[in-house]
Amino acid sequence: MISKLLAMAFSLTAAGAAAASPRGDVMADLAPNLATEADRALYAALQHQRADERRVRFHAAEAERAERELAGVQVEREISLENRDKAVTSGDVEAAGTWAPRYAQALRDEIAAFTRVLHHRLARDLARADLERSEQVVRHAEALAQRDARS
Q1: pLDDT at 2 over 70
Q2: What is the pTM of this model?
Q3: Helix, strand and coil in the chain, % to nearest 5
Q4: Where along the chain do its domains lie?
Q5: What distance in Å separates the CA atoms of residue 84 and residue 103, rounded to the nearest whole number?
Q6: In angstroms, rounded to a whole number, what is the distance separating the alpha carbons of residues 93 and 98?
Q7: What is d(CA 146, CA 3) in angstroms, rounded to the nearest whole number?
Q8: Which of 46, 94, 99, 133 has the fewest CB neighbours in a 10 Å radius?
Q9: CB under 8 Å to 36, separation ≥6 — which residues?
Q10: Is the pLDDT of residue 16 over 80?
Q11: Residue 14 and residue 50 in contact, taking contact as beta carbons nearer than 8 Å
Q12: How far is residue 77's CA from residue 84's CA, in Å, rounded to a whole number?
């Protein structure tokens, strides 16, 4: 049987954990009290899993934010391109001189935003792969802890 302290940590919800611990982390409070090596391995696996979950959430949110930013920058680029083209075709040199640098800046902004989108999508996907691997480690550690408790 998994130690009582570890079983208690499994049963707490995120809200309950924050209320039960002054630091908001019941698992960290329990670490010194874990009885067996299997319990300590399970604790470490759970900590790693929680870190991977946080990484997935962070990069998913950042990717979404970067995608919204990219959409806005693409609108700016389209508007500045249309205005520059209108100024060039109408022969308005002053307006063309105003819109050409705006268009160039919008292109640079679009490249930067697209780079951020790709970066955070890749980081999110890598974090998801790490999370899947850490979930497997947790399942393995749980099985070892249960087997250890039976013997």
Answers
A1: no
A2: 0.68
A3: 90, 0, 10
A4: 36-150
A5: 8
A6: 9
A7: 10
A8: 94
A9: 3, 145, 148, 149
A10: no
A11: no
A12: 10
Cβ partners under 8 Å of residue 90, min gap 6:
none
Cβ atoms of residues 114 and 70 within 8 Å: yes
User: Is residue 31 very low, low, confident or very high in pLDDT (cuts 50, 70, 90)?
Assistant: low
- Tell me, what amino acid is at 110? E
Residue with token string 């809200």: 15
- The residue assigned the tokens 């959430």 is 57
Phi, psi for residue 105 in degrees, rounded to 5? -65, -40
pLDDT of residue 32: 56
Residues 90-132: pLDDT tens digits?
999 999 999 999 999 999 999 999 999 999 999 999 999 999 9
